[in-house]
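Practice problem 4.
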C-alpha cells in the first residue's frame, strides 16, 4: 500500500516502494538461508553442506550478479562468516592457560 507524505507543507506525494532486483527477490533469501544454517546450525555435516552449497551457488550464478549486489552479499552474507572464522582461528592460536592444559604437557609442546 502506498503512503502519502507531505513535503514542506505542499500537497502529499506518493511514496513508491523501492523496486527490488531479481537478485534481491530470489538470490538474497536463498544465500541468507545458507548463511543462517552455517552460522547457527548445530549439526556439523549440515553446516558443512550449507557452506558448500553457498559457495557452489555463488560460483555458478554469481558471475551474473551486479556489483551492487555483490557488495551487499559481502557485507551481509560473506563477511560475517569470515569474522567468525578469524576469531576462532585467533582463539586457537592463543596458548592455553596452565590449568587448562592436559596433565604432563608443557607450554612448549603445546605450541608445536
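Answer key:
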Amino acid at each position: 500500500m502506498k503512503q502519502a507524505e507531505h513535503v514542506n507543507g505542499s500537497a502529499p506525494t506518493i511514496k513508491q516502494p523501492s523496486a527490488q532486483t531479481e537478485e534481491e527477490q530470489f538470490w538474497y533469501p536463498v544465500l541468507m538461508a545458507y548463511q543462517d544454517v552455517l552460522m547457527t546450525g548445530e549439526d556439523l555435516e549440515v553446516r558443512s553442506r550449507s557452506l558448500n552449497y553457498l559457495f557452489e551457488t555463488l560460483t555458478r550464478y554469481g558471475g551474473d550478479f551486479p556489483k551492487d549486489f555483490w557488495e551487499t552479499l559481502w557485507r551481509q552474507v560473506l563477511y560475517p562468516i569470515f569474522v567468525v572464522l578469524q576469531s576462532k582461528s585467533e582463539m586457537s592460536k592463543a596458548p592455553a592457560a596452565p590449568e587448562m592444559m592436559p596433565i604432563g604437557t608443557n607450554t612448549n609442546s603445546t605450541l608445536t
